[in-house]
Design a protein that fits this description.
This protein is mostly helical.
């Protein structure tokens, strides 16, 4: 193909450049695609430029990191009605990848609002101006919400529904309405996927987290903790597919919040896999949450204790304090002393009830701990933390998993 493309160019047939750009696209060479595409367009009458080809040339420059080179092609394609060109140019301006007036962003997104991604980004900019250091514009917010509500079902996707939910939740452009907000969050959560094929207004999985917590709290709907856990589980699966470990950990911690208000064993059991997924990311807060629920559900500390140790190995002093408080509640004061002292080693200011723990107090709850002082258990804990660090390397990267 390259040989025939070169022969065509030698004989004056500029479509050889188009073939070269296609070959570069197949190879994933954005620089070569841009150079060949630019040559093709320069040899073509501007009146005959195909909008999609113009957009492609801009995109090749964009994804090659040649942002300034992309601008004229995106501008031309946007003027020819290619919404993706308007969206990408708006994003480049927002990210300071090109030095163009910020006012241009809303002009471009307004032109692209008839496609779902454009509508969502247009709404996000209008409804959450604080993210862009803009001033709120109530008239624009009302216009945007009215426009979103008027879109046909085929033009909605997860982020357009999310923006409608956000508007009703905060009373932006419409009266505040919990029920309507929850209804739109439900629609958004149903459509949320890891790769929606376009820009989104929140991280992968977060719509299901938000909707799940509304179900847990009974906000705008009847409280349903079991359904809340279902949506937090879905959020974790989406985040796993999108490789977003922080979101996995956040969803797991939310699951712990859901079951902390319930004493139903079946909910604890349902939440355990979610909490384990969060703990496996290496997030210390998720590890502690998993350890607590594991101990509460099984009635034993044996399986929970290693997760407390791992959380401390991530050098999170809060993990030590939370573990110590939990152990005090289980009347394991000597072990609580060990965790509290390990947290103090990391710079934590211990609350009075932990600072006053007696290191000589002996526990009676576990056979292997009888007769051991807090000081002895502290030394064993430090040894366990060192072994955990050697195995998982947590000290320098709490999310290394």
């Amino acid at each position: 193909a390259e040989e025939y493309a070169a022969l065509a160019i030698d004989r004056g047939n500029h479509f050889g450049w188009a073939v070269r750009s296609m070959i570069a696209q197949i190879k994933g060479d954005n620089n070569a695609g841009f150079e060949a595409g630019r040559q093709f367009l320069s040899a073509t009458d501007p009146a005959e430029h195909d909008p999609d080809m113009v957009y492609s040339v801009g995109a090749w420059a964009h994804f090659a990191g040649r942002y300034d080179d992309a601008v004229p092609y995106y501008e031309q394609a946007a003027a020819l009605g290619v919404s993706a060109a308007a969206i990408n140019l708006a994003l480049m301006i927002s990210r300071d990848q090109v030095q163009l007036p910020k006012d241009r962003v809303m002009e471009l997104l307004r032109a692209a609002r008839f496609v779902p991604a454009g509508a969502a980004l247009y709404a996000h900019r209008a409804l959450q101006p604080q993210h862009y250091q803009d001033q709120p514009n109530p008239d624009l917010q009302e216009e945007v919400v009215h426009f979103l509500a008027g879109l046909s079902a085929s033009q909605h996707y997860q982020s357009t529904y999310e923006m409608l939910a956000y508007a009703y939740d905060h009373g932006l452009g419409v009266p505040q309405d919990d029920a309507e907000a929850t209804r739109y969050y439900a629609l958004a959560a149903e459509q949320e996927v890891a790769n929606p094929g376009g820009p989104i207004t929140s991280g992968a999985g977060w719509i299901n987290i938000d909707y799940g917590m509304r179900l847990a709290d009974g906000k705008g709907t009847l409280a349903d903790p079991a359904a809340a856990l279902d949506h937090l589980d879905r959020a974790i699966k989406i985040a796993q597919e999108a490789n977003a470990p922080n979101t996995i950990a956040d969803a797991a911690c939310k699951a712990a919040d859901v079951i902390n208000t319930s004493d139903k064993p079946e909910l604890q059991k349902r939440a355990l896999p979610l909490l384990e997924a969060g703990a496996q990311t290496g997030d210390p807060v998720a590890m502690v949450a998993y350890a607590k629920v594991l101990a509460a559900h099984t009635g034993r500390l044996t399986k929970a204790r290693p997760w407390f140790v791992r959380a401390l190995a991530a050098e999170d002093p809060t993990a030590g304090i939370e573990a110590a408080r939990f152990l005090v509640g289980k009347d394991e004061r000597a072990e609580a002393y060990a965790f509290a002292r390990a947290a103090a080693d990391l710079g934590a200011d211990l609350p009075p009830e932990l600072a006053a723990l007696d290191p000589e107090t002996r526990d009676g709850g576990f056979m292997f701990m009888k007769g051991k002082t807090g000081e002895t258990l502290y030394k064993e804990l430090k040894d366990g933390i060192a072994k955990t660090v050697a195995q998982f390397g947590f000290h320098d990267d709490a999310a290394s998993g």
